[in-house]
Design goal:
about 130 residues; alpha+beta; Nuclear Transport Factor 2, Chain: A; 6-stranded mixed β-sheet; about 45% strand; NTF2-like_dom_sf; SgcJ/EcaC family oxidoreductase; Steroid_delta5-4_isomerase; DUF4440
Length: about 130
């Protein structure tokens, strides 16, 4: 698996690292942010476990033209885990080629790795939005 541009050494930096990887359009960089058996909630609300299982979901997300900004709203660390919430804005185009903005809030759990870096173990891109 591809190495990150640089490992995420502070859990509060995960969302910015995800946006940077997304904006690079490099699927390997995005996948490198996840533990191999982590869980991603897809746009249908289904759980996909393992980077092999959700590779296609992230690939489809990367096909969207535009620029992603993701700002960490909070980080609650506990030992080797942290709960995160982010606000994201994706400036993109709609099906007709018109400018569009997609905005929302995420919920994630990250875990410290043996080398001190952090990776996603649960990523819910829509998990903090009101229903």
């Amino acid at each position: 698996m591809s190495q990150l541009k640089s490992p995420v050494m502070h859990p509060q930096d995960m969302n910015a690292a995800f946006a940077d990887a997304y904006n690079s359009r490099d699927l390997k960089r995005v996948l490198a942010l996840y533990e191999p058996e982590s869980i991603l909630v897809n746009p249908r609300g289904d759980f996909e476990q393992g980077t092999t299982a959700f590779r296609a979901t992230l690939h489809d997300f990367l096909k969207q033209e535009g620029t992603l900004v993701s700002k960490n709203m909070y980080c609650i660390p506990f030992e080797d885990l942290a709960l995160l919430r982010a606000h994201y804005i994706l400036e993109t185009v709609d099906a007709n080629g018109n400018p569009a903005t997609v905005e929302g809030h995420t919920s994630e759990v990250v875990r410290r790795q043996a080398d001190g870096s952090w990776k996603y173990i649960i990523d819910h891109p829509f998990g903090a939005d009101p229903v």
